[in-house]
Amino acid sequence: MVKLKIGLVGTSQLSFPGNKEAAFNRCAEGMKKLGEQLGFDLVVYPDTVIVREDAIKAVAAMEAEKIDFLLVQHTSYSAGQLAPVLAKIQNANVGFWAIPEGEPVEGAVPFNSFCSINMHMGIVAHYLRDYKIRVKWFYGYPEDSDFVRRLTVTVRALTAIKNLRRARIGLVGGIAPGFNDLYDDERNLNRRLEGIYFNRLHEYSELDDLAKSYKLSELEPLMESLVSCSTGYSDLAAQKYLETNARFLKAYRQFIADNQYDAVAVSCWPKFQDEYQYSICSVIGQLNDEGTVAACEGDVLSAVSMLALKYIAGEQPPMLMDMSAFDEADETVLLWHCGPAPAYYCKEHGYQLGCNYSGMAHEPNKGITARTGIAREMIFDDMPVSVMRLSGEVDKFIQIGGEFMHPEKFSFHGSRGWCGNLTLNGEAISAKDLVNTILCTGFQHHFPVIKGDYTAEIKEFAAWLGLTPIQKIPYADYLQVID
User: Fold this and answer.
1) What is the pLDDT of residues 224-249, one digit of tens each?
2) Considering the domain 4-164, what is its CATH architecture?
3) Burial readout 119-150 (b: 16 or more C-beta within 10 A, e: otherwise)
């Protein structure tokens, strides 16, 4: 993951008596410390910007440094002519920063800093309205907790965007048959995240040929490690798939390294089941554990969304879930999938190696008569989580928050957890209203998940990209038509 690069520019006027140089230097030193703490690079412009010509020089210098975020400190009240120049910097987002006034000098306002960003924000919003420039405001000193939290949100959101625009993503085998809600037009993705690389032309046979090419002696250490990472078998039938599992894990590792992919979307059926009576669930979980985002069923937009969550959360592994049940009694929803979750989500009790019972046809009324392997049998630890997925024409997104809880509650075989304390866009929501919102909007049936509450970071990520949040649709008994 590459770091965000922030450019710091100070603006001022000569007509305010506060010690502007000392104030700016204090803030520059504080920002350097925050860069080490939050993981961003800092470029400090050495001269104070006072007139329009100064602003032109400062912008040129920052553009030459290829900064990602221009933070303009209004150390004192600054000329309105600076705002259009600074706000229209190329290839960087913008923030305006005011500092507290401190002690007055003989009763005079020392800096008039806050009034300055008020004016400049107004200039961008009204005078420059046709440019549709987004500017975030900041207030305080670098050691202030509110300032640190506000900057942290921005750093995480913009770091995710920067890395997505450099990301390489591969689709293997296309979308799973019939999963047409997962269809996406890659041109929308390219427009929204200019620079992202996406290859949809890889075939299942590429991985199959690699998997078949390895000698058994090459695979034996990997097979041992796959078992030792688990707590054993929940279904001994999974043992017969261990060699196949190792073959495809090794193949995917090589494929990802050769193509330098940050994420893959894998059409995990039906070809694996047709040829091997095999599910690739555990391989997907392991790839996510190892740092490569892997999405099930050829879902490219979920792979991109998982990658965004990974970058927002500082390299934590994400996972991709279905929503398989909801319970109004305790206001929870069941996030479940066949068994592809990373071990990161079950540190307390670990996972077992089981079989995926949903990959092949079963004999009627005879229970589980067919199995494919290997799947990770796990119940998620109690933890806060965030869900985010791009939707529509890459112009919408859903944001769900909650906590995994009630591990003792009945759930189905696979990787799963009951999620309660539900929120949508940061506001509490009932399970029934959440389900109604998902179904009435026709939201896709996949839910990327990351550990932690990243509500603010996801909202800021979406705001910089111009994404519209899916809004709550309260449950009603009549047909609710959503345009």
Assistant:
1) 999 999 999 999 989 999 999 999 99
2) 3-Layer(aba) Sandwich (3.40)
3) bbbebbeeebeeeebebbebbbebeeeebbeb
